[in-house]
Write a structure and sequence with these properties.
By secondary structure, this protein is α/β, with parallel strands linked by helices. Helix content is 51%, strand content 12%. Helix 4 links the parallel strand 3 and strand 4.
């Protein structure tokens, strides 16, 4: 059955209607969650600084916690960037998580050189799937300050203002602060994939939190109050999970009222990326393995975007293959409009965080990565990965 002067089939209009709804949601998603906020407390932090300062203007102390497992080389490369932070009161607690290299020797050197450096260790033979959670718990108990700032041994802060920027998020009533964690750039296809995925996922969790729907954070740039950690039982209910010391904990404790996001470029941390596809695959599978532990509302939120994205691409291909030229033209215009929106917003964020721009390769990543994620979620877990 056809209608109108253009002989458009009813089924074609139905397909175009569903395609348009998917397009509308995608535009909404990018506008609400991906667009970088550059105003308010989460950007300039001035109100947070004022709330943190005491009557005498002093800033509170911060305990920077670093878990290290066979990270001797990285500690040598990046530890100094923590100790040169422009912040009046902080300590660095390095946890030796069962290292078999020279990690402990490197830690001991820094302990001897700088009184702000302290260390603890995960006892050998600890029986749990994620000894990192035990290490973080031990460090939190040993911390002398009320604010805990987490990063990794292979991380380098963007600037000497990193601690100050992250601490600016602890305004009145704020207990959790989310920052952006980037990866160093390398000239390889794998690194290009990592850069895109990190940018998209980072903007998503930060945008969701800024919109009042926090669902995760990354352990290489995350802060929370010490009393918040222990009030929620720390990782006591997460010890059997292979990962989740960052995203599952944030998913459990973060709310619209107690969470803030820092978009300032001087709050970014830079990490060493995976250099092999096997390493990236295993890392991604390990992170996805804890997704079932998310709140139901978070799961529903995380499903909507890839589902509408997949529907958008499938219906576009259908319309390009067998629909009326007018329907094809409308679909093509919406497709191009979405692509321009993606490129402009993602590259604006990439420039803000000093990351490489994204070109036409965006289409491949946009289509294939959700498929890869779906395959990983359906695969049985392998004990040698976890």
């Amino acid at each position: 059955m056809t209608i109108g002067v253009f002989d458009i089939e009813i089924w074609e209009l139905c397909v175009l209607g569903v395609f348009t709804l998917a397009f509308v949601y995608q535009v909404y998603f990018y506008g609400r969650y991906i667009w970088v906020r550059r105003g308010g407390n989460s950007e300039n932090g001035e109100n947070g600084d004022a709330a943190l300062n005491g009557e005498n203007g002093e800033k509170p102390g911060v305990s920077v916690i670093v878990c290290a497992r066979n990270e001797g080389a990285n500690l040598k490369a990046y530890m100094q960037s923590l100790l040169t932070q422009d912040y009046p009161r902080f300590e660095v607690i390095v946890v030796n998580d069962g290292s078999e290299d020279d990690t402990q020797a490197v830690i001991d050197e820094y302990v001897a050189l700088d009184k702000r450096v302290h260390t603890t260790f995960v006892p050998k033979g600890a029986r749990m799937r994620s000894t990192k959670k035990l290490g973080l718990t031990l460090a939190a108990k040993a911390a002398q300050y009320d604010y805990l700032l987490l990063t990794d041994a292979d991380c380098r802060p963007e600037s000497t203002k990193w601690i100050s920027s992250m601490m600016s998020g602890f305004g009145e009533g704020k207990e959790v602060v989310l920052g952006y964690g980037a990866y160093f750039r390398e000239n390889s296809l794998l690194n290009s994939v990592i850069q895109y995925e990190t940018l998209f996922n980072g903007l998503h969790y930060m945008g969701a939190a800024a919109s009042g729907k926090p669902y995760m954070g990354v352990g290489r740039n995350l802060a929370y109050r010490k009393d918040t950690f222990f009030a929620h039982g720390g990782f006591s209910d997460l010890m059997n999970e292979s990962a989740g010391d960052d995203d599952l904990f944030v998913n459990k404790v973060a709310t619209k009222q107690n969470t803030s996001v820092i978009y300032r470029c001087d709050s970014v941390t830079w990490s060493v990326p995976k250099t092999t596809w096997k390493g990236w695959w295993q890392q991604k599978r390990r992170h996805l393995s804890v997704s079932n532990g998310y709140k139901e509302s978070s799961k529903q939120h995380l499903l909507r975007e890839p589902l509408t994205r997949g529907l958008f691409y499938v219906l576009f291909i259908v319309m390009m293959a067998c629909c009326n030229p007018l329907v094809m033209s409308v679909a093509y215009c919406l497709f191009v409009l979405r692509l321009l929106l993606q490129v402009s917003m993602l590259n604006a964020a990439a420039n803000h965080f000093h990351q490489p721009n994204i070109g036409i390769e965006l289409l491949w990543y946009d289509m294939l990565l959700p498929v890869v994620t779906g395959v990983m979620l359906m695969m049985p877990k392998r004990k040698d990965i976890w």
